[in-house]
Amino acid sequence: MGRGGLREEKGVMASDFLWSYTDEPHASRRRQILSHHPQIKELFGPDPWAFLKINLAVLLQLWTATSVQNAGWLKILAIAYFFGSFLNHNLFLAIHELSHNLAFSTPVYNRLLGILANLPIGVPMSVTFQKYHLEHHLYQGVDGMDMDIPSHTEAHLVRNAGAKVIWVLFQLFFYALRPLFLKPKPPGVWEFINFLVQIGLDFAMVYFWGWKSFVYLILSTFVGGGMHPMAGHFISEHYVFKPGQETYSYYGPLNLLTWSVGYHNEHHDFPRIPGSKLHKVRQIAPEYYEGLESYDSWSQVIFMYITDRAVGPFSRMKRKAKQSE
Q1: Which residues form the domain of 21?
Q2: What is the pLDDT of residues 254-263, one digit of tens each?
Q3: pTM, rounded to two decimals
Q4: Strand-pair partners of 3
Q5: Residue ranges of the Sphingolipid delta4-desaturase N-terminal domain (predicted)?
């Protein structure tokens, strides 16, 4: 692999992405692990508790939204940051889980549950997210295919700590809007269903409980995706702090609230295993994971990203598309 742009020296930010000339590592590691530990296949399949967990989170967040209808704005902001953000980010990652059909064996049921999980987030995104996220798995790092990677515009603009602070605060917008600008896909029937159901909920929230309840939901989504401990996973998963590895796991306590998305190497190796069982992959095959760089604090990852002058949006691994793609 090589790095374009400026020389690789401490404190100097690159002017190009890290380029790899090998395939992404997960397919080959999956084959190796299954050859030595075939019992891992027993972990494949839906999480029987997913439906209940998602419904509880949705009901709790919608109830909280109705409860703050007469609260002051400062109180609403505080509740959104210290409580609602955790619920909405949990639901965002539930939608990630559902994009892999890990609540039901029948895909359409996962899609319907995803639309339900979307409700407190306030903006329709569950159906569109699945389209782009599955491509992230199929074409990890592939130029023009993997929309998880920042655009050249983002990378050229975010060149110092101040710009990185702003980028982190608004990273959810970049994450959501980037694929719509770089690789737009025509909406289908399910996008329209997602849109209509979501707008219906938003309208009902404003009509029956007022703007404060609706704004609470939007704030919970926005602050939960910015300078927030749970949002550290956006950076920790694939941003390269030490060249040589392109996917990183997090083994801290916030996995309990995030469908164990921190087990990210394990997830990319085995996307058919639900988050509730990913820790078992590491237990069964420790020799494949203990030698990899990992994190135990998402907040620390955000701090390192902002303060390390050599790290920025260009700190991602890319590879050229194959002719067959």
Answers
A1: 2-318
A2: 999 999 999 9
A3: 0.93
A4: 18
A5: 12-50
